[in-house]
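Board notes, transcribed. Complex of a protein with 6-O-phosphono-beta-D-fructofuranose.
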Amino acid sequence: MTLKNINPTKTESWKKLQAHFNEIQSVQMKSLFQKDNNRKENFTLTFDDFTLDFSKNRITEETLQYLLNLANESELQDAIQKYFSGNKINVTEDRAVLHTALRNQNNNTIKVDGEDVMPIVKESLVKINTFSDSVINGAFKGFSGKKITDIVNIGIGGSDLGPRMVVEALHYYKNHLTTHFISNIDGDHVTEVLKNLNPETTLFVIVSKTFTTQETLTNAETVKKWFLSSKFETTTSDIKHNFVAVSTNLPKVKEFGIADKNIFTMWNWVGGRYSLWSAVGLSISLAIGFDNFNTFLKGAFSMDEHFKNTPFEKNIPVTLALLSIWYNNFFDTESEVVIPFTQYLEKLPPFLQQLSMESNGKSVDRNGEKVDYQTGNIIWGNTGTNAQHAFMQLVHQGTKIIPVDFIGFEESLYGLKDHHEKLMANFAAQAQALYTGKTKEEVHLDMKFKGDSDKINQLLPFKIFEGNRPSNSILIKKLTPKNLGVLIALYEHKTFVQGVIWNIYSFDQFGVELGKELANKFLAS
Ligand code: F6P
């Protein structure tokens, strides 16, 4: 059973949303706050360590109701049920979509083609656990009998962005191993990484779902050649001590020379950009230890349960997806910016770019017809406060409306109080500034007060902030493995809801193929 095929623009709720948009498109959020003293509470959702304040959006209760109706008319509940139960909702690739099974903590069966996948998922977790422990405690040795000190993850796209982002995000929880990532086919990149590595103490983790990806195979071959160069006095039989692989393509992995015991399998029902919960996350488990990796999976599972079981009006991923559709399809906003207020999450925006844009960057609907409405948004971002000294000028005063997700943490990890207070003051200030802006009168008064009266005529228009710019504030207690799992799963489900409502197939990625084909032709010519 696959997803229903419903053109969102033909639904009753879409028509109501269009009429409603015409009425409220110019409404000022300030007046909405004035009318409702409890607006902040009324537009806040909580889940575990998470609080989503979405009060600073150009919405009313009525908007929300129409958006929720749209979710219902799109049969979102039916889609969620199919998503979690192993139905082949990735129709164009004839596959189930079961990254959620990788973190499932219930004792239920989840079947693909009549076979329960939970036993193989559990088996794979045991293998990840045993292997990570042995590398971390030094029982696993490199070819010359020395303990491993460095891990190199070789992969690209989903086989790089997820592990890279999580390893960096959870650096605070890291052990003595140093993790490196090689992704780009740029030979200078791999050379720079290898320059400082000792082959005796380095473990190479080749991650490729297909094991046919040009970038990954080229980099892996270069690394193998370096490893086997005569100066190290190594032979091909040493490869089994320093190379492991994660893939669905076992024959190709063996052909590369990886020993059977060093192969970690994954399955075609796990999409690349959703694969960090599988053995693709091996570098994560090596970096922070299996217990932390498992806690990370449990966090994601708790968000799965929230998403599956919470009524839409209290459901965080559903709410974020609906708000995103509201701006994208009615305000024609096109892009969304994500600003995490922690340096640890610097790689979250590139991860979300693949997650959202590779999933929902489609212009043909589930009927095979060209859509006449907008689908996937452009996702971008950087950390606060760095973003404030770079692109936030455009978000505050530019000609475009750019909805923002601010992500902040109540507690810092090392407890530098002074820094954290300043960081979080900026977190609050950015959302406030976008929403309130600064009027002509306020600028006038301000300049007068600062003794700049003589410049008022010249500078006043440039110092006005129109305000009324939307943002969501996601406040999380602390950056822990569990909460990071919750956060990533939240964005996965937001992406899913958007794809369901836009009536597109979110789990294929044919759009990356043409460039690959042409690159091969250019190479051959
Ligand atoms: O860019 C296309 C893509 O197929 C992604 O979806 C995937 O994450 C990446 O390439 C890497 O693929 P693989 O893991 O098969 O090497």
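Residues 156-159, 208-210, 213, 216, 272-273, 358, 509, 512 surround 6-O-phosphono-beta-D-fructofuranose (CB under 6 Å). The chain has two domains: 8-94+310-436+470-512, 118-293.
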